[in-house]
Amino acid sequence: MFVKEFGKKITSRDLNTQLEGVYKWKLNLSEMTQSDAMSTLNRVSGKIRTIKNSSLGHQAERNPGFMEAMLVSQVLETWLNERAQMLAERKLSPSEIKKREKYANGMKKVEEDFKKRYGANAYNVMEATARKMAKKKSVAEAMDLLKSVLVGRSQLNEGEVDQASAIVAARGMVDEIQKMLEKIGKMVNEELPSLMDTIRDRVGQEQAGAFGQAATSSLTPLMDAVKAAREQMDAAARTVAGEEVNPMGGIGGMGGDLGAGAPVGADLGADAGGIGDLGGDAAPEIPRAGASEFDSSDAAVGGTAELGRGKR
Fold first, then answer.
1. Where are the alpha helices (DSSP H) in the chain?
2. Does 234 share its domain with 302?
3. Averaged pLDDT score across all residues of the chain
4. pTM value > 0.70
């Protein structure tokens, strides 16, 4: 049993200190990458399962190797959760906003895959995935994340999906106002001229002119008001998403089209086997549900002691 202080949130650093105190080695958390942590956690979890499924599984807690593996897994899981929380809370930079837009647009081509796996929550997961992909340093890392989400080995925590749900809902209101704006625009540019022609032919020129003037006087300020409301709501939705809004126009001082010039390669492809080209190199295939787990490589995460060789 590992020592924990009641009322205190135990951090990965605390657990790593416990690991060093008991087994005389620790994980190199300061140099660890997410890939290191995931691959090491997979190996440690495999060791734990092997011991539990052995003939001595009922005595696992008496096995120093089992207890060491359990503590290492606690360190890694806590570190991954802390990292995910930190990334979820951090606002997107201007360049990351561009990448998020690019990834989000490309992911529409695999929208059905998200719907099959996540159902009604698909759009929230897609939004959370696009935001997290944008924070990755390379396209390869972003693609690895997308793979894990599509096959159900999600690296998204509950807070990230909840945040994405709020963002999607806020953007939904913006979309509804946009529909109103488009409807009013259609009335002004298409329906009103046609109706004025009908009134002119069936009632008279004078009546048609009076109606057109009254309708224009009503619809023009209405369109301006809805357009202003849409811009204000869009800015509010971007604030919810953690994007800095430039009062002079544009986001984060960029202006222009967010999707243009994003340095993430071509859009996601729509080939049946998975995701298409997203970086110029050969496209990594997206495994479908039920595919085998990803291979894990050795991770230089510190310490020379092998699991099961606890120091006393």
1. 12-23, 34-53, 64-89, 94-107, 111-118, 122-134, 139-150, 158-186, 192-202, 205-240
2. no
3. 76
4. no
Considering its fold, how many domains does the chain have in total?
2
Does 175 fall in a domain? yes
Q: What is the pLDDT of residues 130-140, one digit of tens each?
A: 988 998 888 99
Report helix, strand or coil for 245.
strand
- Cβ contacts of 292 within 8 Å, gap of 6 or more: none
Among candidate residues 265, 277, 244, 267, the one with its CA nearest the CA of residue 97: 244
Q: Is residue 151 part of a domain?
A: no
Q: State the Cα–Cα distance between residues 177 and 234, nearest whole angstrom.
A: 10
Q: Domain containing 217: what range?
A: 167-240
What pLDDT, in 10s, does the model give residues 267-281? 443 333 344 444 333
Residue that finishes a domain, picked among 217, 240, 263:
240
Measured CA to CA in angstroms, residue 149 lies from 36, 78, 143 at distances of: 18, 20, 10
Distance CA 90, CA 87 (A): 5
Give the sign of the dihedral formed by CA 199, CA 202, CA 207, CA 209: positive
Q: Is there a single domain that holds both residue 3 and residue 81?
A: yes
